[in-house]
Specification:
Layout (H helix, E strand, L loop, with lengths): L1 H12 L2 H10 L10 E9 L6 H15 L5 E4 L1 H9 L3 H8 L2 E4 L10 H5 L4 H23 L5 E2 L9 H8 L4 E4 L11 E3 L2 E5 L13 H20 L3 E7 L10 H6 L18 H19 L4 E3 L2 H7 L9 E2 H13 L4 E3 L2 E3 L1 H18 L5 E2 L19 E3 H18 L6 E3 L2 E3 L1 H18 L5 E3 L31 H9 L5 E2 L19 H14 L3 E4 L2 E3 L1 H15 L6 H8 L11 E3 L5 E3 H13 L4
Parallel strand pairs: 1-2, 1-8, 1-9, 2-3, 4-5, 5-7
Antiparallel strand pairs: 6-7, 6-18, 10-13, 11-12, 14-17, 15-16, 19-20, 19-21, 21-22
The chain binds zinc ion.
The site of zinc ion has 5 residues, from loops.
Length: 612
């Protein structure tokens, strides 16, 4: 089926020779070749031109009719407009796909970088939540789905948005700009998975005519082949539904270069002729068909991306050997560390190594296994710090203890460290700590004194310096800059590390959701609960996964015939305590907490989408 469809299509595009040469090296869907994941996403933002509502629906239907899913990142005002225009049909069409969030008003000034540019970290986080929280709730309520991802409007990026995403349990940052990036691959930053700045793995087809389609398909194929050569990976393709219907972007028409007219003066953008819109949809349907039928391509939503790249650092403990390796790496440079199939950020490294020192002080042994705790990077540049010095071992142990207490309390690395009355920069603290643990691992003894080691903070290079090229979006006022905000962003590079594609990918497609009975879905949920590293909390009592499963099974039995569907199970068995009425919570292994019902609904969605 796939081969036939592709051949017919290749002929129609005049691409047969290219396709032919490919078949020689690769067979379609060869289970031994790594899958290449492709994410199509749409910034669904124009709330002025009603025709863009239809465009979003049409795109959703194109994906639905081809049996694949896209991700629609919806603006809060767009969601409200769809509701108020009575477009339940559009909402229903988009709900068959994945829903993300794309700010409350998108281009109305001030946009996130504009209101954050001069704020301190805590104020920036609070301001982002204050301004964008309403839209997040509206998208969630109107679509009846927890948004799976967020991305900034234009290039109006802020580091503080990540802290809000963690609070809102939005697992993925999905967008494209250049403030932070890791060689075009997915990465972790501020404890959020980023499918962001995937330069080299982002492609797009100009939907003008057969020739531009041909060119777009060729480009897709080049990117796909590069990803396949590298063992798979993620390709990002994005559009805006309004591009199918407008002549000019809605926001350029109203908000360019800082202009901010009152609502009653907002202008609808000019609309393109209907036949141009039709041609563009037809070309897009062919582009999608081409992309999704290439060998080993699997389309994924943002929600699925989150499951493809689990954070291995929190899935199991680090062994003594791994702790020693972490110490050696951080002593050389303060950056992320790769350990087998896992990565740790510099901040996570400090978390583990400080625990190692405290543990060694207690038992004269580096603990057999340790887990990191998530925390953000420092939130201001250390001022005057010492350039050299030596600390008594006891002072050093106390500093490590203080560091752990402070990170626990503040949820971030302190911006300055105090060791034996001296002020130490975090980067030097990390290098000194790593050197000390490295020496303990080698000799089995605590050093008599710990000498300050100047740290080499190389990870900061993955965050861009403030420059006009970061702020090229049409709505920014001329000469917009945000040096203070980008300095904060650089401090958060302590949390940056590569995201590793999970090796545990199903080789063959999992059974479709319709193939699972409700009973099987409940059984699958119980299985997920049992295997999860996350901890259920019932009336303040912690239930690690096997105990959580026992509890749910017990309640399920007690509920008897009342539970017919997986949703019944979530709502009636797994949402709250019968005795106290209090809601069950889940402490996730990366430090976040969420309601059990929300956690389970996300797992159910994964199960229904085929177990990925
Ligand atoms: Zn946008």
């Amino acid at each position: 089926m796939r081969v036939k469809g592709l051949t017919v299509f290749a002929v129609s595009l005049g691409l047969l020779s290219m396709a032919g040469s490919l078949w020689a090296g690769e067979s379609p869907g060869n289970p031994t070749s790594p899958p290449v994941y492709v994410s199509f996403w749409f910034d669904t933002e124009d709330y002025l031109l009603p025709a863009s509502d239809d465009a979003a629906q049409r795109l959703a239907d194109i994906f639905t009719s081809q049996g694949v899913q896209a991700t629609f990142k919806v603006v809060g005002e767009k969601a409200r407009v769809l509701r108020d225009r009575g477009r339940a049909d559009v909402i229903a069409a988009l709900r068959r796909h994945d829903i993300g969030y794309h700010t409350d008003f998108h281009s109305v000034h001030p946009t996130p970088s504009e209101y954050s540019r001069d704020l301190d970290w805590n104020d920036g986080v609070a301001e982002f939540i204050r301004r964008e929280g309403r839209g997040f709730e509206d998208v969630r309520t109107i679509f009846g789905m927890d948004p799976s991802c967020y991305g900034q409007p234009g290039s109006s990026w802020t580091p503080e948005s990540y802290a809000a995403l963690r609070r809102w349990n939005i697992p993925v940052y999905l967008d494209d700009a250049s403030q932070v990036g890791l060689d075009g691959r997915p990465f972790w930053y501020c404890g959020v998975l980023n499918a962001f700045n995937l330069s080299g793995f982002t492609t797009r087809c100009t939907l003008q005519n057969d020739a531009t389609l041909d060119e777009g398909c060729k480009q897709f194929e080049q990117v796909r082949q590069r990803a396949a050569r590298e063992g798979g990976g993620l390709i990002s393709i994005y559009y805006h539904p309004c591009e199918w219907v407008h002549e000019k972007f809605w926001d350029g028409v109203n908000f360019s270069k800082g202009s901010n007219p009152p609502r009653e003066q907002w202008q609808k953008p000019p609309q393109k002729p209907a036949e141009a819109t039709e041609r563009q949809f037809a070309l897009f349907a062919r582009y999608l068909e081409y992309a999704r039928t290439r060998p080993n391509v699997r389309l994924v939503t943002a929600r699925e991306i989150a499951t493809l790249y689990p954070d291995g650092a929190y899935q199991r403990s680090f062994t003594r050997e791994e702790i020693a390796a972490m110490a050696r790496a951080l002593a050389r440079e303060v950056s992320f560390v790769r350990l087998g199939d896992r990565t740790v950020s510099a901040a996570e490294g400090v978390s583990v190594l400080a625990q190692a020192v405290v543990g060694f002080d207690k038992s004269r042994q580096i603990p057999e296994s340790l887990k990191p705790k998530f925390f953000f990077g420092p939130t201001f540049e250390a001022g005057e710090t010492i350039e050299q010095g030596e600390f008594a071992w006891n002072d050093w142990v106390k500093a490590c203890r203080d560091c752990l207490t402070a990170t626990e309390k503040l949820s971030r690395l302190p911006s300055v460290m105090r060791v034996g009355g001296k002020v130490v920069a975090p980067v030097d603290f990390a290098a000194t700590l790593a050197t000390a643990v490295g020496s303990i691992a080698e000799t089995g003894r605590a050093p008599k004194a710990v000498r300050l080691v100047k740290g080499n903070w190389t990870v900061a290079k993955y965050v861009a310096d403030d420059s006009p090229r970061l702020w090229g979006w049409v709505i920014f006022p001329d000469n917009f800059s945000a040096p203070k905000m980008m300095a904060l962003a650089r401090l958060q590079s302590w949390t940056l590390k590569p995201a590793i594609l999970s090796a545990a990918q199903p080789k063959t497609a999992a059974p479709a959701a319709s193939a699972l009975s409700e009973k099987q879905k409940i059984a699958a949920l119980l299985g997920v609960i049992e295997k999860s590293p996350d901890i259920f909390v019932r009336n303040d009592e912690e239930y690690p996964s096997p105990a959580a499963r026992q509890l749910m099974e017990y309640k399920l039995k007690a509920a008897g015939d009342g539970i017919k569907t997986a949703n019944d199970f979530i709502e009636q068995v797994a949402t709250r305590s019968k005795t106290t009425g209090r809601v069950y919570m889940v402490k996730m292994s990366d430090g976040r907490t969420t309601e059990s019902a929300r956690w389970l609904r996300a797992r159910l969605a994964e199960i229904e989408r085929g177990g990925r």
